[in-house]
Task: inverse folding
């Protein structure tokens, strides 16, 4: 899984389409759950062309883990098709979005999780 520990306080997860998406989350969630302290998280969706309901469920699960720990989570780089899924489901109001990973990292550092 392309998971980078960008700093002690921020991790970046770069995702791709299924089946890699689901497999990467199966690795990410246990690692993220065990992390002490739990870091902020950037989920880079720039390599994802489409999201399904299972993918959304996984993203919501990791969002809850971050929120329970008082940590920020940003979604970076969604393309138009992925963005439309967030709009259609109303999840555009639940997550923080950034144009790219660099912007997401800056926003997390400034406390805009």
Result:
């Amino acid at each position: 899984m392309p998971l980078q520990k960008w700093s002690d306080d921020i991790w970046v997860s770069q995702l791709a389409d299924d089946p890699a998406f689901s497999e990467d989350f199966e690795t990410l969630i246990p690692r993220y759950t065990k992390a002490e302290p739990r870091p902020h998280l950037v989920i880079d969706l720039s390599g994802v062309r489409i999201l399904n309901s299972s993918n959304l469920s996984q993203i919501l699960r990791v969002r809850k883990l971050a929120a329970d720990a008082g940590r920020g989570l940003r979604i970076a780089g969604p393309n138009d098709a992925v963005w439309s899924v967030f709009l259609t489901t109303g999840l555009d109001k639940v997550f923080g979005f950034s144009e790219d990973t660099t912007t997401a990292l800056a926003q997390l550092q400034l406390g805009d999780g």
In short: The two ends are 23 Å apart (CA to CA).
